[in-house]
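Support request, please re-run this one:
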Amino acid sequence: MSPARKAIVLLSGGLDSTTVLAIAKAQGFEIHALSFQYGQRHAVEIDAARTIAQAMGVARHIVVPIDLRVFGGSALTSDIAVPKDRGQAEMDAGIPITYVPARNTIFLSFALAFAEVSEAADIFIGVNALDYSGYPDCRPEYVKAFEDMANLAIKAAVEGSLRVRIHTPLIDWTKAQIIRRGLELGVDYGLTTSCYDPTPEGDACGRCDSCQLRAKGFAEAGMADPRLARRASSTFRTPFVEARGAK
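Re-run finished. Output below.
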């Protein structure tokens, strides 16, 4: 039996990226997950990512420490208040302050390096242009441009031994569609976290854009959010040894 193809999956610990991980795994890929501790105020998502990676049996999980707080410019990486209680029209009105400058470009660049070293041609990212249409780095044209650049940038592609593909299976799905597909694949959404401004215990605020989109998705999927049935203080304290450096 030939070895499974490797895929790099960007895993934030949220609903979308966990669903993407499940999709990649269902397609037969050996999963190498990549998460970032980038100074985000919702750092509880890193604990969630560790738990999810362990529960879903990834081959390797790396948590990369970078600090985007040195630039700020976002409610997620500075003292700017996270918007709360916004209606859909307000969310759709423009690029929200929760946009982190160049975040997906930074994350995909790390994933590209990881892919080349791992001899993996496939990178999965959970961007969604429907629910987050205001984020410029969640658009299909951005992803296509990055993929084109990637195949000009790395030694393996220039020499012809590898051609990188960026997979965005959720790009035009509603949150309800994402949840339904994840449930079909056995995703435990109780392990995921989506809140931009959680309590110190990791509980969701229920009022930020991300919390509202998540709640709407579960409502439209016809089920309760399993995350609400778990206590963050006990669920996300699973011991986990991070992989560091090359094997």
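The domain at 6-235 is CATH 3.40.50.620 (Rossmann fold). The longest strand covers residues 30-37.
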